[in-house]
Amino acid sequence: MNLHALVRNAITGVAPDRTVFRLPCLGQQTGEDYQVLPVYGPCEAVTAQIQPVSDKTLQWLVQSRQNTIWRDMYIYGLSAGLDRAEGLGGDLYYFDGAEWQVDQVLEDWRAVGGDGWTKVRVCKLRAADAPPVGATTPPPQDLPGVDGAVPLEESPHA
Description:
alpha+beta, Thrombin, subunit H, six-stranded antiparallel beta barrel, two-stranded antiparallel ribbon, 3 helices, globular, disordered C terminus
């Protein structure tokens, strides 16, 4: 019995599904200059349900880590978090004008019903627009002094 299907209308009535953009981390490679760089698969639009982190969890996160912004996301299919053993740095998601990185896979229900959903915790990294669907690199960092970046006096963030 699929209990999630039974309560789906009630859940989306409170927290509607949204389309977000996912840049899946495939691992890393070493460049010619010996710099280790992440490798990403093609950006794709996925359906997700974004929820705030619970109060007790948020209190623990703030006390044990640096101050930042977290969200819990329910997505259909697989999503990878930071996994040193597999060489993964965590999938990147783009929504609300920001780049978010999966730092933890909280629940993986795919094993129960095959196709199921995954609950992940994402951490806000920076302000960024989503890369185009099919792109395999994150959008550039618009930092002054970085090659290809907008000069500070022209930056919309200045």
